[in-house]
Prior knowledge:
A: alpha/beta; 4-stranded antiparallel sheet; B: 35% strand
Amino acid sequence: MSKYYLNYLDELESEAIYILREVWAQFENPVILFSGGKDSILVTHLAKKAFYPSKIPFSLMHVDTGHNFPETIQFRDDLVKEFGVQLLVGSVQEAIDEGRVAEERGKNATRNVLQITTLLDAIEKNKVDCAIGGGRRDEEKARAKERFFSHRDDFGQWDPKNQRPELWNILNGKHFEGEHFRAFPISNWTEMDVWNYILRENIEVPSLYLAHDRDVVWRSDSWIPVSDHLKLEEGEKIENKKVRFRTLGDITITGGLESEADTLEKIVAEVAAMKQTERGNRTDDKRSESAMEDRKRQGYF
Amino acid sequence: MIDNNQLLRFTTAGSVDDGKSTLIGRLLYDSKAIFEDQLDAVAATSKRKGHDGVDLALFTDGLRDEREQGITIDVAYRYFTTPKRKFIIADTPGHIQYTRNMVTGASTANAALILIDARHGVIEQTKRHTFIASLLQIPHVIVCVNKMDLVDYSETVYTDIVSQFEEFSSKLDVKDVRFLPMSALDGDNVVNRSQNMKWFKGAALLHTLETIHIGSDLNKIDARFPVQTVLRPQREGFIDYRGYAGRLASGILRPGDEVTVLPSGFNSKIKTLDTEKGSLKEAYAPMSISITLENDIDVSRGDMIVKVNNQPKPLQEFDAMLCWLHNDAAKPRAKYTIVHTSNEQKAMLKNVVYKIDINSFSRIEDDTSLNMNEIARVTVKTTRPLMVDEYRENRVTGSFILIDEATHETVAAGMIV
């Protein structure tokens, strides 16, 4: 009987499909939070598997900071077309224009925190009762405490000390009107698992993940891409380097690393040998020891 | 190499003092699952707190309150991979007021690590953790006698503790128990075999975790397929497609198998077992698939597809071991929502048969209150029959949760006896 076991990637896939089907069965209006990063791409692919031969029954929701890599937007639009799903966009720029949020000032100003308001607005406006995210527990210490089904109160807030216990595979998505859930089908995947699966399934990812030549400046220990949104500091100079990005966030805060990994195989090998965490080059997480927990409590991804 | 690697989930329970966090830190560190920037952060914190060297225990602190108080409050999940297996650790607190979190972590585990401080031997907490491992039917228990460096690596101390453990655990239902002496602080018998305890002939912890046989942990005999949702694509090429989507809880299914749909009792045959990659010749737990049947019969979420000649029991009243998870105590005869696989019904706690003192395993028969973190044998009555197996036989179809209808909170977890 020993052949009747799944390898770990198949087991993770099966678990994610199970969770996605539970979301569909338990909620009225679920969406996939789509950032254009590999994790949300993976979730979208898993949703395709979960409902095949039906189409993906979720819309994709993108919180657009206005500080995107152009490649991300192109990739998003192509993917939406390929899967035949609806795209919902929440715009941080609009929220700024409407005066709902104010742009951060100072040297490391970003629109990262501003996304919270836009995300919660978009969830409310579209009457979303479950937002499916690509968050993983290995990413960050506050995320290690997340449930598969994570409750948000009617202010969109997370109360990490008062979470519903989640036993076996029984998921409780019951909620009152105005409250919503976040669902994390790839909670148990690590960065390495994600890349191994992308390689195995030959899933297309934005070219930004592959090593390419790009104009960058050295800031906060990583290569920040040159864009319209980047203001050069004194002493900084633009260089052209072969880089790739390990995570994709705002173009203003996502640092690249020098790399020769221009194929999925090479990325898997490179990630396996990594000595820094994935979010180590995200300046948004470096603000304090509990930066992620604080943002998550308020409603962040 | 990576293709045949299995996933092993294990749980650790313990207090700050018995070295649990140090052990996990050691496993992560020695298996190179800790990155330089995490190490730098922990080294800086260790220094600020005035510790000698790097305090490995700090790797497992999650929430701000936990860091401030130096305790684990909630279940935290950790990951590491070796060339042989991927591991998921459910790290849970060990104090009695966190029983619910221990139960949560134990519910999906293949193995439990139980830590004993070699200086103190078997204490109340050891019994509590072992009881929970037995209650939740964790297939493998590994007893780690830790801090051997503080008892001069004494074989006598170790064998005494092993006997103490065997004596009390004989009253419990634990199937596969292994023992090993270790010093998590120094790494003795964690990843590498100890040079200080050559008298111990067994393997180091990691080797045990990498090789323990988990292929039989899931029930492969009784095919149980709870239906999560129905797939009706209604698009070209699939106009008449009607697939029942779910995850096989146990057993093996093949096309042509004679099946019964419960609770309706209609019989049919399996036509196809489908995935996005194509149809399968056989499917087994825990695969997520969709099933098509030869006949057009009514099947919906909450139904269960099983083999005609091997069926669960339809029960409307049954006994269960119940762990109460919520601050508000159980209300006798109050109604709750019961969730059992994908099926949802109304349920009532008819009776508390007895409570269990989880430190002494003795029964408390004259107290019918049921408060947070307490465990009791109860009688549950439901509005309609549930298709159940005993939890001992099947961890999926033998388990359920109760939800408070007024708050939507998960208030209890039950194991059918």
